[in-house]
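Possible race condition, two jobs.
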Amino acid sequence: MSETGTTAESGSALGSGLKVRHLTMMGLGSAIGAGLFLGTGVGIAKAGPAVLISYILAGAVVVFVMRMLGEMGAAVPASGSFSHYARLGIGEWAGFVMGWLYWFMLVMVLGAEITGASAIVNGWLPSVPQWVVALVFVVFFAVINLSKVGNFGEFEFWFAAVKVTVIVAFLVIGVLLVFGLLPGTEPVGTSNLFGQGGFMPNGFSGIAAGLLVVAFAFGGIEIVTIAAAESENPERSIATAVRSVVWRISVFYIGAIAIMVLVLPWNDPELASGPFVAVLNKTDIPGVAGFMELVVVVALLSAFNANIYGTSRMAYSLSRRGDGPAVMAKLSKSGVPTGAVLLSVFFGFVSVLLNWLLPDDLLGILLNAVGAALLVIWIFIVVSHLRLRRQLEADGKLTVRMWLFPYLSYATLGMLGVFVVLMMFDADARAQLISTTVLVLVIAAIGYVNSRRQRQI
């Protein structure tokens, strides 16, 4: 059931230099990005303080999906992760669709991340063209990803650690603000939580709208199971990392949102434009806005670095089983899929160019297609788990177990179905759903042609 080894011209296997702390920080680094630092204001504007319910519901779904993915990953470590499990549990076509859908989604995200980071840096250095800043970043992270995986893991560990430290500091300062323990501050109590129209100023429709905004903020955490294949002890590493990442992400996200809606009124315009800066401004700390800009740049670059890794390993895994160009499966002497890394970097830079050349046309269509891709991937993970669980249990491979199987698994699938229904009643989300459906059909058609070609060889 495991991915069989492959022999490449210049290497025989992926590297194995990642440690549990690397995996944990990679998961945190991918999930804690601009979605948390900037996007939370959008969710608060839609749902008010009740956005907490949106985050708790979305967070619960992500925790359950990750538990299922962790169960399969600990039993069958594979660089293809959920793509490999979809192939085993559902069929060859599902593995092809999941793998390339994930690759496409992250490549488009790469362009958005590098464009956002370079735009901020360009504001600091207006004499340097934005495209030059972006090119420097792309080349730098290409070099990082082409080095042996242990070096990459160490770099990403410290990069992500900066973000985690900032979040922890924010939570500490936020608690002090809530209880009025900082100089010149008074306890806020629950006045902001239940004032300005109450806890649910926009009713259940606001919670639903907030749910659509926040559900995708958790994306990126699944990279832990992709990276586990290059850890020193995949089975143990993935079990430990998944447990650690899941609770930390939950605390960071829900804790940060709770601080925001307690400290400030939900309809405060500053909260909508920059929630972290808005809260920290209450402390009268000088230079806080500039500092948070720096943190956002670090957050974007850390996620960019981790996502290059994720896309390259997925392309490598797909190519190994004949679902991609053979050159993507070749490894360097240090066990790095050089061709797959360069492919991801190249298309990441192409998406940067599209971001500047066609901001309102082609790129908008492509980014819409990305919108619901994560939701499709989560649904396939749950279905794969439901179909594989009993076989894995019979093989005696389970070291991580999904709680209350199969009831909680089916409940998670039902909740994801609710997400889809909610998207159909929201104009913007409906456009994303339609675009993603078309993209999935296109990838499936390519997969069908590819499978027929392989049978004829």
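Job #2 (started ~2 s after job #1):
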Amino acid sequence: MAKCKIGITEAGDAGLDLSWVDKLDTVDGAVVITKRMSPEFYDAVLSNKDKIIIHATFTGYGHSVLEPNVPSPHDEFDAIMALERAGFPKERIVIRVDPIIPTPKGIDTAKNVFKTFIDVGFNRFRMSIIDMYPHVRERFKEAGLPLPYGEYGFYPSAEQIGSVDKMLEYVGKYWFDMGDRTLFLDVLRIESCAEPGLKNVYQCGCISDYDLNLLGLAESNPDSFGYQRKNCMCYSGKTELLKHKERCPHGCLYCYWK
């Protein structure tokens, strides 16, 4: 049985819906996920930095047809760097490349995101490969975008998974080749959950023993009995902090909310 209660904001965007702030006193720690470092979010996480890990979602598609209301990559990069300069610990900022579209263009976009953040000393990433729900396929078709898995495909093919793995192998080599620079103080962590086909990743939940250690909540044998879907590896003390269950104003075409 989990000893700690860790909040997370998977049901929305923590930079747009700040209702999670009022619930921080009900949890031992929190993982907050956002594509937008709004001024209110900025203030909230700095005020509670000892209790929070940030997942900064950065796909490289901000302000495009795919993510129409997400800030541009340039603006969001600047916001992440400003947060670090203001004193939020870099080791508690996870760059979330989520989702990756496993086409040649999509893989190249993801590779450039990894390299951009490695170049400024970030060492922890999370990633997933896009799921093409029926309503997501319809959005892609309406926007005139190609369907990465064809007319009825939901999951990537073995070949597409292999292409993503090859890109991650390249990223690992890129990190290794840059390793003599003084700002690289730790190993590279590229994490993934519910993506059992990938090899060049740490398979762990969005909340894991690594996070518990970062939050000063280490357990001797923390469980990984995820509750959300098949192959979920999250710590069972995970609890959702957002309750507004609908598509957020970012309007991302791949959103699982209908």
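Strands lie at 6-8, 29-34, 52-57, 93-100, 124-129, 189-192, 202-203, 238-240.
Logs attached separately.
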